[in-house]
Hints:
Layout: E1 3-8, H1 13-24, E2 31-38, E3 41-48, E4 67-73, E5 88-89, E6 95-103, H2 106-115, H3 128-139, H4 147-158, E7 161-169, E8 176-181, E9 186-189, E10 194-197, E11 209-212, E12 217-221, E13 226-229, E14 235-236, E15 241-242, H5 258-264, H6 266-274, H7 293-298, E16 301-306, H8 308-325, E17 329-333, H9 334-337, E18 348-354, H10 360-371, E19 375-380, H11 386-390, E20 393-396, H12 409-429, H13 434-454, H14 458-468, E21 473-478, H15 481-497, E22 500-505, E23 522-527, H16 533-545, E24 549-554, E25 565-568, H17 577-595
Parallel strand pairs: 16-17, 16-18, 18-19, 19-20, 21-22, 21-23, 23-24, 24-25
Antiparallel strand pairs: 1-4, 1-10, 2-3, 2-4, 5-6, 6-7, 7-8, 8-12, 9-10, 9-11, 11-15, 12-13, 13-14
Helix pairs in contact: 2-3, 3-4, 6-12, 6-13, 8-12, 8-15, 12-13, 12-17, 13-17, 14-17, 15-17
6-O-phosphono-alpha-D-glucopyranose is lined by residues 307-310, 354-356, 359, 362, 405-407, 606, 608-610.
Amino acid sequence: MCGIIGYIGSKKASPILISGLLRLEYRGYDSAGIATVEKNGLSVMKDKGRVKNLYNLEGIDDLEGTIGIAHTRWATHGKPSKENSHPHLDNSKNFAVVHNGIIENYSDLKGFLEKNGYTFYSQTDTEVIPNLIHYYYTKDKNNDKDRILRAVQHTCKDLKGSYAIQVISKYMPDNMIVVRKDSPLVIGKGDGECYISSDIPAILSFTRDFYLLNDNEFAVLSRDKVEFYDIDLNKINKNVKNIEWSASSADKNGFEDYMLKEIHEQPTAIRETIGSRLPENEPCNFDDLNFTKEFLTSINKIYIVACGTAMHAGLSGKIAIEKLCKIPVTVDIASEFRYRDPIIDKNTLCIFISQSGETADTIAALKLSKSKGATTLAVSNVIGSSITREADYSIYTHAGPEIAVASTKAYTSQIVLLSLLAIYFAEILETTSVFELKDLKKELLELPNKIENALKSSKRIQEFAKNIYQEKDVFFLGRGVDYNTALEASLKLKEISYIHSEAYAAGELKHGPIALIENGITVISIITDPKLVEKTISNIQEVITRGAKTLVITNQELPANNFDTIITVPDVNVLLSPVLSIIPLQLLSYYISKEKGLDVDKPRNLAKSVTVE
Ligand code: G6P
């Protein structure tokens, strides 16, 4: 899950490449580098550490090349070091490559190349790629304009695994070649110039016109045109896609960090996600699906599959779909689901949630479900992302670019979109009364304003964060939908505050974890389901008796003076309460992380988009 950037045009490439990399740093940030085509051959500048270190490299300002490739790395094969940084050169130093993904058979390929006289200078899987290109280039005796393209094609046929690759060469001073398989890559088309990137926001300030490359497609870029080829090098046609996101939506907009900005963008993200899906006095509108009653009646089981925060959104989706549509739903972690031989047939609907649309395990789970005959539906935030191109159907959250590694606005938008989906199904299936659905729709439309209200807890949360930022362990408790919020809140705390935390279904506490409760430990509980208030309070009482400090997030009237701190969020239908109750808990993780002086947006060891398994 590295980030790649490329430029071909008439401007100096290096500043464009570095600014693009800075925007992609959330994908990986342990080393960075650029390669440009200069008058006397290729120049490669790279080092361990953050992208901004590139500005200090000697000679970086002297680069004149107008074609270049660049990379910010999240180490998989080989520790972060200058040698392991991209771009990688072949032994002749005439081909430079950046790569995102993993070459699974790299040691076989390395052995083959070593037998053929090649030497390796890094521990990466990537270094086989430029050397294989060189190998096939020198074997090809036909010196026509497609010689390098053929060498790249032969190389790709040898590679097993996932890759998005950019190639430049001394022998190709006016072109660049890119190819992808199971790793993201987009091409931005400007006037007399092209940009390459792992994702759209990184190059939105340069262009709004994009070509989306599918698996096993090659693009040969010139300054003024892009030619596309399939794996057998037959030419293919592609249309430019215009992307409406504004470049400023990918900036911090006055906030100290992207995460804080994205937390505050949740009212807008929800408004945009609801969009025109709830027309007054009409059924919920999913033009992009158009499912029939016959089709939905044939569905007897739904899987919701995702990773991380997206999986937690799926847990809320399960509760909404089961309640409103009476179809059993199983929520699965993608990396478990895909290796478990799940029971799937043509009457199964599989829903895959992925903010980025590029998470490798979720994509693999989708491919598996499709091969077993299920109908597949992707829920993503990125139009044209890999997962949406694989799925039978796609629906989108319209949260705008999410840059902070820890997901916030995508999570709440996913819950909202799944609730809308549940309403849409229920209206077709007629499994819930129209009055109940009408109320729920009204509540959905009120959510953005209620989020604004929930955000007002910010000051109190900041104070609370000051009290607990040095804790080593924190517990989160909840029942029903509130258990899902506990799981997500605990993940947020781990991700950005590096505090060990556990989330427990409150009723499960006495089956083991209560042994860990001792004097002074912080226990955070969520209570929003009116049916479960008393039950959860009894569980909190059990930890109070054992000396725990308690924070309760609630929209219910609770008996006074039982708890140390109570934060109230607006009242709402229980199916939607996870959208509101997570807000103070997102803020809590944020302020603890700030209190500890950590890098909120780029937490250690994590990446935004996990395109490796
Ligand atoms: C990574 C990110 C999480 C995200 C998860 C799934 O672990 O750090 O924030 O929830 O991937 O990402 P996706 O793009 O598939 O929703």
